[in-house]
Amino acid sequence: MGNNHTADRSGATINDESLDFLHKADRDALHTRFEVGSLRATAHFLWEVDFSPYVLRTRLNRCLVAKGLHAIIAFDAQLDGHLLVKAIWLVDTQQWTEVVNALKLAEQRGFCTLPVTMSLEDIQRHTTKQAYLAEPRVLALWKMIGRHVDFGGNYGRFELFDQPGGGVRALRDEPGFELTINPPLPPTHPYHPHIINDNPPVRSSIDLQGVSWTADADVLTHASASEFIMDIIMWHPSLANRGKTPVVAV
């Protein structure tokens, strides 16, 4: 069927993509990674297995419902093949709590409509699973979904921009909008007991000035990447003009 397969008892690959699961029984239930390796090492007929986009999309929809994400995110109907597998992995294995909270706040403030639909372009922000895992989880997820938060006017969208040689900018792909991820902190800094590797502190000089963002403000260290995201959403000044009920951060 055009797929190249390899297998041992610790794992399996199709077209050089590592598998974490395999359909079983009712076609969209899944085996674990170890089961995949065991099955592929012992049942040669599985070397001919190929799963249709319909089966993969059915599984993706079940994952969204199981994780309670179906009202928060959706995936473009044009996703096919390995991108559907990638979407299943993202939904099934990643923690979305911080991103969900940020999207709910953004919707409350009128900056997005839920569910947001992740496109082919969004999914491809990370070329491989290894590239995704090399970044803190919250920022890696926000890279794919942040552009759906639209502040309007000169404020633009809440995008994160990769920089040549590493690093990331927020809101504007311009000098000064860089984020320092997990910056050095004094040994006695109160953030230390609360630092989480996949949601580390973030330092930036981004602030509001007039009707746009500026990078000339005093440097501020946020307790986590998710706090930075929530702060940016809260800082936007147009709430009173949108007829919304004010939100109080606690």
Q: Could you characterize the architecture of this molecule?
A:
With 250 residues, the chain is of the alpha+beta class. It has eight helices and 16 strands. It folds into two domains: 1-50, no CATH class; 96-242, no CATH class. The strands form six sheets. The protein has a five-stranded antiparallel sheet. Strand 8 and strand 9 form a beta hairpin. Helix 2 (53-66) packs parallel to helix 3 and helix 4 packs parallel to helix 8 (225-235). It is globular, with a radius of gyration of 21 Å.
Task: Please sum up the structure shown.
With 250 residues, the chain is an alpha+beta fold. It has two domains: 1-50, no CATH class; 96-242, no CATH class. Helices cover 31% and strands 20% of the residues.
Number of strands: 16
Structural class: alpha+beta
Q: Quick check: average pLDDT? A: 82
Element-level helix/strand string: EEEEEHHEHHEHHHEEEEEEEEEH
